[in-house]
Design goal:
This protein is an all-alpha fold and 81 residues long. The protein has one domain. The protein has helices spanning 20-31, 37-50, 55-62, 66-79. It is globular and about 35 Å long. The protein starts with 19 loop residues before the first helix and ends with a helix.
């Protein structure tokens, strides 16, 4: 796993910065037992991206493609959560 601040090759990932309230809402969603799994995955992508994890590390940790992580990073950076 590549940890925050780790060296990476290739393109730079879209930075994601979340407000405290946004982080709290996402963490709450992750804890909900009735939340749709796709929403939980998207919330985890947002939180890990905010913490500085690379797209490759998020992809590996969550079992989704790097392309999926990159697309969600861009959407979150553009539109928020």
């Amino acid at each position: 796993m590549v940890y925050p601040g780790g060296m990476s090759r290739g393109r730079h990932a879209t930075p994601v910065k979340l407000a405290r309230k946004e982080r709290q809402e996402l963490q709450s969603l992750i804890r909900r037992t009735t939340a749709a799994q796709r929403d939980v995955t998207r919330a985890r992508i947002a939180l890990m991206a905010h913490e500085g994890y690379t797209s490759a590390a998020i992809s590996e940790e969550l079992g989704v493609s790097v392309q999926t992580v990159s697309q969600w990073r861009q959407r979150i950076a553009r539109q928020g959560v």
